[in-house]
UniProtKB/TrEMBL annotation:
It holds the Pfam family TraB_PrgY_gumN. The keyword Lipid biosynthesis does not apply. The keyword NADP does not apply. This is TraB/GumN family protein. CDD domains: Tiki (cd14789). Keywords: Signal. Residues 1-20 form the signal peptide. It comes from the Bacteria.
Length: 286
C-alpha cells in the first residue's frame, strides 16, 4: 500500500514539462568535474510503464555508485502516514464546491466505470490525485515502475535510498496550484472516458522508449492539460533549482545514482543545464 501511494504521487509528474532544448537522445547522464572524485549519474524515469527493465548501462551505473537518490525517500517508514495526511483539500472543500451537479455526475460516472467506486467516497481528495488514480487505466498492461526497480537494486546492494525533497513538499504543490485548474483536467478526462489521455500516454511511452527527452518535453507542452501548462514553474522549474544544491552535496559525499522524472532533465531550467551552469560536466551515456 505504501508503494502504491508513493507511485500515485510520482505519477502526477509524468505529464509535466518545460520548453526543451536539443540534447542527445539519452535518459542516462554522467556527472563529473567540479571537484568530484568519482562520477555520479542522473537517470530520467517514467513513473508508470509497461516495462521497467533497466538497460545494461543503467545497471552498470548503479554498480559504480554507492547510494540511490529519488525525488523523495520512498523507503521512509513514515511516508504512508504523511501522504494520507496531505492528500485532502484544505478548508473542508470537496469536488462538489467547484462543479455543477451535471459535471459532478460525469466525474462520478468516470470513477464508477474505471475504479468501480463512486467519487462520493473521495470527493475531498485533491483533484490531481483523483486524476492520478486513473493513470494505471491508461495502459493496457500490468503497471511497472522504474523507481521500484531502482529500490530493489539499492536494497540488494545494501545501499541507502534518499530523496531530493520531502513528501510534504510534493504534496504542498497541489495546494499551491488552484483546485479549479486541477478539476478542469479531471472533468476533461471524464467527458471522453480517458480516450484523449490514453492516446497521449501511449505516445509519451513511445517517445520515452526512444530516449528523446527533448521531444518528450515538446509533446508534453499540451494546453489540454491546464494544470501542467499553467503551472510548470511550480511543478518543474522551481523544484529543479531547489534540487541542484542537494545534488551537489550528495555527489560530493559519495558517488550517487539520481533517479528523477525524465521531464526534469531537458530545457534551459532543466537539471542537466542547471548542473552545467554550476560547473559540472554532464554527458549522455549512450
Amino acid at each position: 500500500m505504501k508503494f502504491k501511494l508513493s507511485l500515485l504521487v510520482l505519477s502526477v509528474f509524468s505529464i509535466i514539462s518545460i520548453n526543451a532544448q536539443e540534447l542527445e537522445n539519452s535518459t542516462l547522464w554522467k556527472i563529473t568535474g567540479n571537484g568530484l572524485e568519482k562520477p555520479s549519474y542522473l537517470f530520467g524515469t517514467i513513473h508508470i510503464t509497461c516495462d521497467a527493465s533497466l538497460d545494461e548501462d543503467v545497471t552498470k551505473a548503479l554498480e559504480e555508485t554507492s547510494q540511490v537518490v529519488l525525488e523523495f525517500d520512498m523507503d521512509d517508514p513514515s511516508m504512508q502516514t504523511k501522504m494520507m495526511g496531505g492528500m485532502y483539500m484544505k478548508d473542508g472543500k470537496t469536488i462538489k464546491d467547484y462543479v455543477s451537479e451535471e459535471d459532478y455526475t460525469v466525474i462520478d460516472s468516470l470513477f464508477l466505470k474505471n475504479i468501480g467506486m463512486s467519487v462520493n467516497m473521495m470527493q475531498n481528495v485533491k483533484p490531481f490525485f483523483l486524476s492520478a488514480m486513473l493513470y494505471p487505466k491508461m495502459i493496457d498492461c500490468p503497471m511497472q515502475s522504474f523507481e521500484m526497480e531502482l529500490m530493489k537494486i539499492a536494497k540488494s546492494q545494501e545501499e541507502e535510498v534518499n530523496g531530493l525533497e520531502t513528501i510534504e513538499e510534493q504534496l504542498q504543490l497541489f495546494d499551491d496550484i488552484p483546485y479549479e485548474d486541477q478539476i478542469s483536467d479531471l472533468l476533461r478526462m471524464a467527458k471522453d472516458n480517458l480516450e484523449y489521455d490514453k492516446t497521449s500516454f501511449a505516445k509519451m511511452l513511445a517517445i520515452y522508449k526512444s530516449e528523446n527527452i527533448s521531444e518528450m518535453l515538446d509533446m508534453m507542452n499540451d494546453k489540454n492539460s491546464v494544470t501542467v501548462s499553467k503551472h510548470q514553474d511550480k511543478l518543474l522549474a522551481n523544484r529543479n533549482k531547489n534540487w541542484i544544491p542537494k545534488i551537489k552535496e550528495y555527489s560530493k559525499q559519495q558517488p550517487t545514482f539520481f533517479g528523477v522524472g525524465a521531464g526534469h532533465l531537458a530545457g534551459k531550467e532543466g537539471v542537466i543545464q542547471l548542473l552545467r551552469n554550476s560547473g559540472y560536466s554532464v554527458t549522455a551515456v549512450q
